[in-house]
Hints:
- The structure is a single chain.
- This protein is an alpha/beta fold.
- The protein has 2 domains: 8-171, P-loop containing nucleotide triphosphate hydrolases (Rossmann fold, 3-Layer(aba) Sandwich), CATH 3.40.50; 201-281, Conserved Hypothetical Protein Ylqf, Chain: A, domain 2 (Orthogonal Bundle).
- It is built from 11 helices and 6 strands.
- It has a 6-stranded mixed β-sheet, with helices on both faces.
- The longest helix is centred in the last third of the chain and has 15 residues, at 202-216.
- The two termini are 23 Å apart.
Amino acid sequence: MNFQWYPGHMTKAKRMMQENIKLIDLVIELVDARIPQSSRNPDIDELGKNKSRLILLNKSDLSEDKWNDAWIQYFKEKGYSAVKINSKKGGGLKTIQKVIEEACKEKIERDRKRGILNRPVRAMVVGIPNVGKSTFINTLAGKACTKTGNKPGVTKGKQWIRLNKKVELLDTPGILWPKFDDQAVGLRLAFIGSIRDEILNTEELCVELIRFLMAAYPGILEEKYDIETQEDAYGMLLQIARSRHCLAQGNEPYTEKAALLMLDDFRGGRLGRLTLEYPAKI
């Protein structure tokens, strides 16, 4: 499969972010803890140069804790502030105010020396589609400030949210980048739902995910779906279809329906805590 999705609103969103970056003290970048490197838009580094940076490993409840910690260490060694969070349930968010102030301490100190007191830190919240930016903002603010959805492309424009006297956030639409140099990156983004399923062959996508899980997490699919181990990934999908009664006419396995079911199980964490890429291999 060839992966690419860069609709017109993303070009517009990138331009808007470039225009607003001069107002910003801190760039808060959300990544998906299951694929922390693949879910980083390389354009963000260029956009946020000379700004304080904070990376949040969101959905950390869906990935293995040992790898969450390894990734936090990896990003800190690269010079970023980094924290693991779970926006939906509020995990890790109590420390965010302190982390933001710590990341911007030089700016706060400069303001103090100039006699500028109580000017709020202005932070731009960025990330790829479906990484959970709006949920993060709503949970942090304690109210529904932004629209959320479990598919990419819900946030279409910018929005300022005042958290308190000390912090203001600029919510931005999720943007990908025009071309994936490595199609494995596109594959991982498709796994987590950051590329619209409608433009993908979900059956092929699911077979690729099964192939990865058979190698990295042997036995997990057999246990979840009560199936026997097969040599090839498509054979596993056939068994999942039968086990979950995804059947077409004549009791034939309806693999397309089974693929959607399994992708949904993976994205919702029902296969367990899974990490798809590791810092040691970068």
